[in-house]
C-alpha cells in the first residue's frame, strides 16, 4: 500500500505527457465525380495541374471508385519517343499545414502504347526543385492497377508544409534514353494514361499535453514518497 500514491502519480504524469493519437483522415481526393469535376477536397489547399498533356473524362470501370456516377481522368499527348523525359503528366499540390504522416495514392490504367514507366516526383519548396520518390512499372495495358501509393511520413519537409506537391510523369525505361511501351508493341504518342482516386491522407498534428501544476506536484510528491520507501528498505 505504501507504493500506491507514487504509482498513481507516475501513471497520471505518463497519461498527460503522451501525445494523443490521431487517425488518418482524407485531405484531398480527385475522384472525378460528375458533380465535382475535377477536384474534391475536404481540407482545402489542393490543386491539380496538367503538364503538357490534354485531359478528358472517361469511364472509371475497373478502378477502386465505388461511386457509380464518377468518371476517370484520361491523359493524352505525351512526348515523342526519346524526348521529354520526366516532363509530361499531372501535378497535384497539397497544403499539408497542420498534418503529418502524408500518404499519396492513386489508380492508374495505361493503353498499350503508353510509357510503361511512371515516376513520382515531389517538391517541398513550391516547385523550385523536384526529387524523385518512386517509379511505377505498368506490366499490363487496358487494366486499372488500384491502390498504387507512396508513404511520405518519413520524408523530411513534407509534413506541415503549404508548398508540397507531387507529379506523376512519364519516364524513359531505367538505364535507357527511350520510353518502353506498356503493351507488346512500340511506344507511341497516341498512348494514353488514365487516373482515378488520386488521394492524399494524413494525420492531424497534435502537440503532447503538458501536465497542469496540480498534476505535476502530485507526480513529484509521489516520486519523493517512493524514494523514501526505497531508502528505508535499503537501510532495513
End-to-end Cα distance: 18 Å
Can you tell me the CATH architecture of the largest domain? Sandwich
Number of domains: 2
CATH topology of the largest domain: Jelly Rolls
The number of distinct β-strands equals 11
Structural category = alpha+beta
Average pLDDT metric:
85
Sheet with the most strands? 6 strands, antiparallel
In helices, the fraction of residues equals: 10-25%
Order of helices and strands: HEEEEEEEEEEEH
CATH class of the largest domain: Mainly Beta
Rg, rounded, reads 26 Å
The rough form would be described as: elongated
Strand content: 25-35%
**Number of helical runs?**
2
Topology:
Elements: H1 4-17, E1 25-30, E2 46-51, E3 54-58, E4 72-76, E5 89-94, E6 99-110, E7 117-123, E8 131-137, E9 145-151, E10 164-170, E11 193-204, H2 213-235
Antiparallel strand pairs: 1-11, 2-5, 3-4, 4-11, 5-10, 6-9, 6-11, 7-8, 7-10
Amino acid at each position: 500500500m505504501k507504493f500506491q500514491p507514487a504509482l498513481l502519480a507516475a501513471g497520471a504524469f505518463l497519461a498527460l505527457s503522451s501525445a494523443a493519437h490521431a487517425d488518418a483522415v482524407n485531405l484531398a481526393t480527385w475522384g472525378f465525380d460528375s458533380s465535382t469535376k475535377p477536384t474534391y477536397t475536404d481540407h482545402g489547399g489542393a490543386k491539380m495541374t496538367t503538364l503538357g498533356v490534354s485531359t478528358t473524362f472517361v469511364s472509371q470501370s475497373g478502378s477502386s471508385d465505388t461511386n457509380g456516377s464518377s468518371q476517370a481522368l484520361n491523359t493524352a499527348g505525351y512526348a515523342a519517343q526519346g524526348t521529354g523525359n520526366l516532363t509530361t503528366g499531372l501535378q497535384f499540390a497539397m497544403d499539408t499545414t497542420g498534418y503529418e504522416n502524408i500518404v499519396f495514392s492513386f489508380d492508374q490504367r495505361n493503353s498499350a502504347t503508353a510509357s510503361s514507366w511512371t515516376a513520382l516526383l515531389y517538391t517541398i519548396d513550391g516547385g523550385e526543385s523536384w526529387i524523385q520518390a518512386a517509379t511505377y512499372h505498368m506490366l499490363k495495358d487496358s487494366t486499372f492497377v488500384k491502390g498504387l501509393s507512396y508513404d511520405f511520413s518519413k520524408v523530411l519537409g513534407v509534413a506541415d508544409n503549404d508548398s508540397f506537391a507531387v507529379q506523376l510523369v512519364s519516364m524513359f525505361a531505367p538505364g535507357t534514353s527511350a520510353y518502353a511501351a506498356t503493351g507488346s508493341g512500340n511506344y507511341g504518342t497516341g498512348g494514353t494514361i488514365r487516373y482515378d482516386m488520386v488521394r492524399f491522407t494524413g494525420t492531424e498534428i497534435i502537440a503532447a499535453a503538458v501536465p497542469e501544476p496540480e498534476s505535476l506536484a502530485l507526480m513529484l510528491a509521489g516520486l519523493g514518497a517512493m524514494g523514501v520507501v526505497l531508502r528505508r528498505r535499503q537501510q532495513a
